[in-house]
Amino acid sequence: xxxxxxxxxxxxxxxxxxxxxxxxxxxxxxxxxxxxxxxxxxxxxxxxxxxxxxxxxxxxxxxxxxxxxxxxxxxxxxxxxxxxxxxxxxxxxxxxxxxxxxxxxxxxxxxxxxxxxxxxxxxxxxxxxxxxxxxxxxxxxxxxxxxxxxxxxxxxxxxxxxxxxxxxxxxxxxxxxxxxxxxxxxxxxxxxxxxxxxxxxxxxxxxxxxxxxxxxxxxxxxxxxxxxxxxxxxxxxxxxxxxxxxxxxxxxxxxxxxxxxxxxxxxxxxxxxxxxxxxxxxxxxxxxxxxxxxxxxxxxxxxxxxxxxxxxxxxxxxxxxxxxxxxxxxxxxxxxxxxxxxxxxxxxxxxxxxxxxxxxxxxxxxxxxxxxxxxxxxxxxxxxxxxxxxxxxxxxxxxxxxxxxxxxxxxxxxxxxxxxxxxxxxxxxxxxxxxxxxxx
Length: 440
Ligand SMILES: [Zn+2]
Description:
Keywords: Aminopeptidase, Hydrolase, Metal-binding, Metalloprotease, Protease, Zinc
Number of strands: 20
GO molecular function: aminopeptidase activity
Radius of gyration: 23 Å
Largest sheet: 9 strands, mixed
Bound molecules: zinc ion
Distance between the termini: 41 Å
Order of helices and strands: HHEEEHEEEEEEHEEEHEHHEEEHEHEEEH
Number of helices: 10
EC number: 3.4.11.-
Helix content: 25-40%
Strand order of the largest sheet: 1-2-3-13-4-14-18-16-17
């Protein structure tokens, strides 16, 4: 059933998002998917360990650790006068990471995996679902300092974390307490004669990657929900999917930067890793990665540090990370007067104590961009007795002296294995990002 509430362009763009998320089961895959989308648009990869030669109007990107990416379209103007237009989002989502030596035998019958939580997932949403494994494995290279990285993504469900039957936990519906080390370990296999005695997972990885088990030195592997997202609601108005936070903002950002027209300012899309655990890695928003890339863009144009600082003064950052929509069953959890809804448009996030970078001036800039893009805009403030989450904006601000606003599309069930967003909001955010990059 299709109604005039959701138009064809919105439906198509929401389906493109679902495809993008399906192809991005880990932050490593998200970067790979972004590269695949940028390449046909003329973006060239730059090496971080070589000198850059840039052409005005040229499109480039760099990656860090295979899990963060910064893309930019070089402006035609003087950088110290026209600055940067930046959008920042994150490639990672809460999940479970497979520990080293992960196999645990259960009474000689089952094999389960030892895992640790990554970020803050809602634990119970991961129970009883077909799960799979994605990330990267590291193989021996020519020298100790040049190991080979290969992405791995199982194309079928491999694991499940089973609930305990209600008969063995009669109080389950009075509140479920789950221990991360005891209750969340996924079942991988039935132990049989044909199963390798040791290193079952490594043998499986080696077979899948057509290499020898001994060539796999280490891995960064995560669990993910095996089932693809879908549209739900009577009018197909909602998006039910894993990792909307924050792949939806990355997807909207790519759409905007891929179609950007050449103009005076340099447009930048920063896709950071490790937001969900505090951003403090070399590929996170708390690293000098972005400030170094921006400075190198100026150095490559034979500009000095003075010009770099002037460029920052002429710059603006949109920190794009998802926001909370009004919950249909828990209205009391929200601020009494600022109550964003699904499909009501992108949300400006404000906090008196600066857990968001937004101030009245940067909020007014974002509102004006929404107006320009003909998109509605909403506002979010935490209930005064609730502590909100953190995001990339304030962390970037401690490293980059740039005016900025924190925004995001409204979703429900943030950090559930399956979050719920609005179909209209997704195209709306992309249109605002485009207006941001294009406006003078
Ligand atoms: Zn987020």
